Amino acid sequence: MMIKRIREIEQYLDRENPRVIGVAAAEDQDIMELVKEMEKRRIARFVLVGDGGKITELLEENGISEDTAKVVNCQDHGEAARTVVSLAKSGECDLIMKGNLHTSVFLKAVLDKENGLNTGKLLSQITVYDKLDGAGIQLMTDCAMAIEPGLEDKKAIIENAVELMRRLGYDCPRVALISALEVVNPKIPDTMEAAILSKMCDRGQIKNCIVDGPLALDNAVSEEAARHKNITSPVAGHADILVFPNLQVANCVFKTLIFFAKMDTAAVIMGTKAPVVMTSRTDTVENKMMSIMFSIYLSGKPDVSHS
Prior knowledge:
The protein is an alpha/beta fold. 39% of the residues lie in helices and 19% in strands. α2 packs across α11 and α4 packs parallel to α5 (103-110). The termini are close together.
């Protein structure tokens, strides 16, 4: 399973030269728990950016070594976000992470046209977790960034997710475009867009995947539900990627995994020059660690060919 494999990456890390993680708005106890755990395992060193006095106080309270974390004082969250982005661009950090600040503030710095980390592609957030039946992994997108994506945005979101799956070893992932129902209804615009995107894939405008939709969540992930509704599709019941119609739906489903199902997840931002870890402020320390390890995994280091 991929989540198990991500955990196993730890044994291949270079303990003498750990990765450096820049955290924006690091004046937060959960960040301290993360730093302490990763210090104990010698996974990473940190540059903690934010209110220097509060960060130093928290480091002392948590008994964290000064060798593990460098503190950079910033006056406000906007400045903290811009600073970690700058550190990533200069090579002083290997990856950056959102701390205790609003996503919009963090993303403003990441997406800045002159000083940000954008590559010209649409940025999208992807959550990865093991399928409930244990038969591989599943992605859901976009749970954090695209508020109300249009047709071209959804095409880019699909392409980002497919790129990620191919990097994880899936040659032709199955993409389900999720809606409230599995038939086209002109009164529900996202069903119309799902049908268009499916046909675009059929005609080669979206490559290296199979796209079908609209599909309801049940028949996208359950072969039995698809059979009950007489849906014949290579995607129905076997989806590798779930693309949701908007942020409201995706974010609610994502948080259902965390708070109701207690599932282990990792998250990644696609389309940036440097790895970006953007977890929820309410994510567990374990899931934040998973997202960091996943970013290390995707960056191509360390060599995990034996995992």
